[in-house]
Write a structure and sequence with these properties.
Blueprint (H helix, E strand, L loop, with lengths): L2 H29 L4 H8 L2 H21 L3 H22 L11 E4 L8 H10 L20 E2 L3 H8 L4 E5 L6 H15 L6 E6 L10 H12 L16 H8 L3 E6 L6 H14 L6 E5 L1 H8 L13 E5 L4 H11 L5 H4 L2 H4 L7 H5 L3 H11 L25 H16 L12 H18 L19 H29 L4 H4 L3 H37 L5 H30 L13 H12 L2 H8 L1 H26 L15 E3 L3 H28 L7 H19 L1 E3 L10 H37 L8 E2 L2 E2 L7 H23 L2 H13 L7 H10 L4 E4 L2 E4 L2 H8 L9 E2 L13 E2 L6
Parallel strand pairs: 3-6, 3-7, 4-5, 5-6
Antiparallel strand pairs: 1-2, 1-7, 8-9, 10-11, 12-13, 14-15
Helix pairs in contact: 1-3, 4-7, 8-9, 10-11, 16-17, 17-18, 18-32, 19-21, 19-29, 21-22, 21-29, 22-23, 22-24, 22-25, 22-26, 23-25, 24-25, 25-26, 26-27, 27-28, 28-29
């Protein structure tokens, strides 16, 4: 361990000892009846050393991060990029049995810049940003080449190092980009720019600048490019932005044609303005879509500035024949099966026209060629493709190959047994294709953290609220009773805080107003029913429900506003969204939630005082809901779900503490003021100022702690795949639950412990004249349960608000119940990518092997298609999977 590691360890140990010593001092003071003032006086001198230790600890960590210079980061990123795409090349079988001889020629003159202009632009660009003029091609025809020559074309023959790769669908543009990327990585000098492939289908130029989108993709796909520890929470991709600003990223933009047609012109304009002169660039697109962008029906024509263009050629008949024979094992019976097809290559036959692209050739070899250990007699005969009656044109051949490909991909494999039948797999893939096309706006990125959009509206919000409510009931009710039984208290149920209160306040942090109301109601109903079963009296059910509504709404407003501040700080809120407007729906919900406390006040204060208190509370809550409902964007649109988290940690967040310090009085003082009004009407005494201040301080700390999250750097030489990202997000959830729970629990123990000591160890309740009526006894057991309940529940809520796996699990179970996808969706997707070749992996997302395959699967099933069973485990293992009518996707 180095010097910085020892310093960090020593700093942590000192902080733990200081905090532990302070807690022990408070316990000794209470145990031996020492004066609180003396203890406080003894502890005050230690604050300075505690601060110096914390400052040194943070400074050391910042210095450690400062040592990671951009060239070093780029070198480590290059290792991750190489490993990622070498693995993907193996999965896609790019070199099996050998790379296809893809060739290209110069594109039509109207698609690229004039060649003399390119040479002139390159000579005027900043020094070091253009290649050696002696290697430049004399004219566009000099860009022609094949196979591995693409790197030479880009690095040496193209003057500006800006290359546009065009081609019809399925001609191998993406595979050629992968080969180019690996070649550039191989020729890259130490500290040089790192080529990174960016699929453009997920970019919306109207919502996100190009550099911000690329930085976000980099930070997600390569975890080490996230924010360093202690960095600003507003910048979740600081290393990635640094590399982009220093020109240490060479963007390879794939799939320009997959951007919606109405946005392509704007996207091309943004690319031109975002990437400075001299910035190397590769862009791929279909020919027709790019030409339509250059010549719009209205507006000024636009083209990629400073770019040369090449267009991919169809495969030659000799190359197709040689590839099919070689993939079938060379001369032999398997290769001879292709002779009827090979004899028609180069003719106008439909099968010959269809097999001129690498995509169709890959599908054909998968369908008709045997795998190692597989006998060709069990496979369909490729000679059927020559049937002009069954396949009258090339489109019919392509459709047949798409359908047969899925059956072939999921046929029994000699080495990789398949858990899903071809019918079940096709049904699941068709549902996912329709989900991408219709529900997710036509994107090609199958991102697991986006599947929550397949859920019914507000379902995730209500489910999260119910989970928080159950957690609050368990910790406040069940654990409270157990602790009460252990310490021998008589008022066991009242030892812990009401579950409805805890759930409502925590639910707001998890998901805003809707989640807070669901959490409060769940916790209130569970608490009331449990109390009725234990005591045999159901009169407290309405009281707990009223508490759940009131505190759920209050906590929801706090959680929604703090979430909006976090989103604004991270730049996730569009400028077009209104900053403030009156929300009548929020006003109505606030009136109902606040007025529901009538059922909670009536048993204690009587009808008159309870009505006044409930009316005051309803007005306050209604005004709060009307003023903040639209601002929080919770009641009308629902709270946005978080992106997956990668190794996050907690640190100070002053915005969160500001919201907490304001929301604590808003919740605590309002309720205290209502009780005071009731007390004055009935000549009673309500909660003391110390009790109210204890809650204000504790809740303020809790909100600040729950929102105090920072990114933690990961290994720069590691690319994050979908399964790894899911595992990291799930692990982060557990860590956040424990860390934030301990911090929040400690905050409540500290604040209520201080109030207990300041009150001289006396209990409190609601007093009627000289009689001390039923109330929550403030004693060590009660303080312990309160800290446990708030810590566990708010920690759980904070983890829900900062991670995405919970919503993914809800979505996959929902889709599995609808018989759309397997319950173990993660395993199914990994198998479809690694073993079947149906999906490809780009960073942390899956995509279909080709966008045309996605569009083919997304089409409505034909009426005569046989019914498909839901995908899952084999039918013999579970009778639940029975054949059902083919259902459309969500």
């Amino acid at each position: 361990m180095g010097m910085s590691g020892r310093t960090r360890r020593d700093g942590v140990i000192f902080i733990l000892l200081a905090v532990g010593g302070a807690a022990a001092a408070v316990w000794v003071a209470h145990r031996f009846d020492l004066q609180p003032a003396g203890i406080v006086t003894a502890l005050l001198p230690s604050l300075g050393s505690l601060y110096l230790s914390w400052a040194a600890f943070r400074s050391d960590r910042a210095d450690g991060e400062a040592d990671r210079e951009p060239p070093y980061i780029a070198d480590r990123l290059a290792v991750a990029v190489r490993g990622q795409w070498e693995a993907e090349a193996r999965v896609r079988r790019i070199s099996d049995p050998y790379p296809l001889p893809v060739s290209w020629h110069a594109a039509h003159a109207d698609l690229a810049e004039p060649w003399p202009l390119l040479r002139e632009m390159a000579s005027q660009w900043p020094s070091g940003r253009s290649c050696d003029p002696s290697g430049w091609a004399a004219d566009p025809d000099g860009l022609a080449g094949a196979g591995g020559q693409i790197a030479d074309v880009f690095l040496r023959r193209t003057p500006t190092r800006r290359l546009l790769i065009l081609g019809p669908p399925g001609t191998g543009k993406t595979v050629l980009l992968i080969r180019l990327l690996l070649a550039l990585i191989g020729e890259r000098a130490e500290g040089g720019a790192v080529p990174v492939l960016f699929p453009l289908a997920s970019w919306n130029p109207t919502e996100q600048p190009l550099d911000a989108w690329m930085a976000e993709r980099l930070a997600r796909d390569y975890a080490g490019l996230g924010s360093p520890a202690g960095a600003s929470h507003a910048d979740q991709s600081s290393h990635a932005r640094t590399l982009l600003e220093r020109g240490l990223i060479l963007p390879i933009l794939d799939g320009f044609d997959e951007i919606p047609q109405s946005l392509r012109g704007q996207a091309l304009a943004v690319i031109n303005t975002s990437l400075p002169p001299g910035q190397a660039l590769v862009l791929s697109s279909r020919v027709a879509e790019y030409r339509d962008t250059l010549t719009p029906a209205t507006g000024v024509p636009i083209r990629l500035v400073g770019a040369a263009a090449v267009e991919l050629r169809p495969l030659a008949a000799a190359d197709i024949a040689g590839y099919l024979r070689r993939d079938a094992g060379g001369p032999g019976a398997a290769a001879a099966r292709w002779e009827p097809v090979i004899s028609r290559l180069g003719t106008p036959a439909p099968v010959a026209e269809a097999l001129t692209t690498p995509l169709m050739l890959f599908l054909a070899r998968t369908v008709y060629n045997p795998r190692p250990g597989e006998h060709d007699a069990t496979l369909p005969d490729p000679a059927r493709l020559c049937d002009r009656v069954r396949f009258p044109d090339s489109a019919a051949v392509r459709t047949h190959l798409f359908d047969a490909f899925l059956t072939a991909a999921y046929r029994p494999h000699p080495r990789y047994p398949c858990r899903w039948s071809p019918q079940r797999a096709r049904h699941a893939l068709a549902c996912l294709a329709r989900l991408l096309t219709h529900t997710l706006g036509g994107t090609t990125d199958l991102a697991w953290w986006q599947l929550h959009r397949a859920l019914p509206p507000r379902a995730a919000q209500l489910a999260a609220g119910a989970a928080v409510g159950i957690m609050a009931w368990f910790t406040a009710g069940v654990m409270g009773r157990l602790i009460a039984a252990v310490v021998g208290l008589d008022s066991g149920w009242l030892t812990g805080p009401p579950a409805a209160v805890v759930a409502g306040l925590a639910g707001g942090i998890a998901g805003g107003i809707g989640c807070g109301l669901a959490a409060g109601l769940t916790g209130g109903v569970a608490e009331g029913l449990t109390n009725a079963l234990v005591t045999g009296h159901a009169h407290g059910l309405m009281t707990t429900i009223a508490n759940g509504l009131a505190y759920g709404f209050a906590g929801g407003v706090v959680g929604a506003l703090s979430s909006r501040l976090t989103a604004r700080r991270a730049g996730a809120i569009r400028a077009s969204q209104p900053r403030w407007s009156w929300d009548w729906r929020g006003f109505a919900v606030g009136l109902v939630s606040g007025g529901a406390l009538l059922f909670s006040f009536r048993p204690v204060f009587g009808p008159a005082a309870a009505s006044v208190g409930a009316l005051v509370n309803a007005v306050v809550y209604g005004l709060a809901g009307g003023a903040t409902g639209a601002l929080a964007s919770t009641l009308s649109a629902g709270r946005p779900h978080p992106a997956p988290a990668i190794r996050t940690q907690w640190s100070w967040d002053w915005r969160g503490f500001t919201v907490g310090s304001v929301s604590g009085p808003a919740v605590g003082v309002t309720h205290w003021a209502v009780l005071e009004i009731q007390a004055r009407i009935n000549d009673q005494s309500a909660y003391s100022y110390a009790d109210m201040l204890s809650f204000v301080c504790a809740y303020g700390l809790a909100v600040g702690l729950a929102r105090g999250l920072r990114g933690k750097p990961a290994d720069l030489a590691t690319a994050v795949g979908p399964a790894a990202l899911l595992a990291q997000d799930r692990c982060t959830f557990r860590k956040l639950w424990i860390t934030v729970g301990l911090a929040v629990g400690s905050a409540f123990l500290l604040c209520y412990g201080a109030a207990y000591l300041l009150n001289g160890g006396l209990s409190y309740g609601i007093t009627r004249g000289t009689a001390h009526t039923e109330g929550m006894a403030l004693n060590p057991a009660h303080i312990l349960v309160r800290g446990l309940a708030y810590g566990a529940t708010i920690g759980f809520a904070a983890a829900l608000s900062q991670t995405a796996w919970w919503y993914y699990d809800l979505a996959r179970h929902h889709l599995a119940l609808r018989r759309c996808v397997p319950r173990d969706l993660t395993t199914f997707l990994a198998d479809a990518h690694e073993r079947r070749g149906v999906l490809r992996q780009v960073g942390a997302v899956h995509q279909f092997r080709h966008v045309d395959l996605q569009h083919h699967l997304a089409m409505p099933a034909p009426p005569n298609e046989p019914p498909a069973a839901a995908p899952g485990v084999p039918r013999a293992r579970s009778p639940w999977f029975v054949p059902t009518r083919h259902r459309p996707g969500p």
